[in-house]
Write a structure and sequence with these properties.
This protein is an all-alpha fold and about 90 residues long. Helix content is about 80%, strand content about 0%. It is built from 4 helices and no strands. It has helices at about 1-10, 20-40, 45-55, 60-89. Helix 1 (about 1-10) packs antiparallel against helix 4 (about 60-89). It is elongated, with a radius of gyration of 18 Å. The model has no long low-confidence stretch (mean pLDDT about 85).
């Protein structure tokens, strides 16, 4: 009964994020960092590219959002892997 309860708990907590989702989010994070470096270090005007990168917010906030998303996905992948392995055992 305990094993079945744990399996239901894992299934009920929603989809586990994928490695692909993490890879895509990390690429967006890298893209934002490149834009910020060009703006800060090279003094380039990246306003147009920034609007494409983060249409609804300033570049720095868009970048910070992707940093947070990448961290959250990586943490969830690690956490979910531990739980799924426990259920499998």
């Amino acid at each position: 009964h305990q094993v079945l309860a744990e399996i239901r708990k894992v299934e009920g907590e929603g989809l586990v994020p994928s490695e692909e989702e993490l890879t895509l989010t990390r690429e967006k994070r890298r893209q934002g960092w490149r834009l910020l470096r060009r703006q800060w270090l090279d003094g380039e005007d990246v306003a147009e590219e920034s609007r494409e990168y983060a249409p609804e917010q300033p570049l720095i906030e868009g970048y910070e959002g992707y940093v947070g998303q990448a961290d959250t996905i990586a943490d969830r992948l690690r956490h979910e892997a531990d739980r799924v392995a426990g259920v499998a055992a």
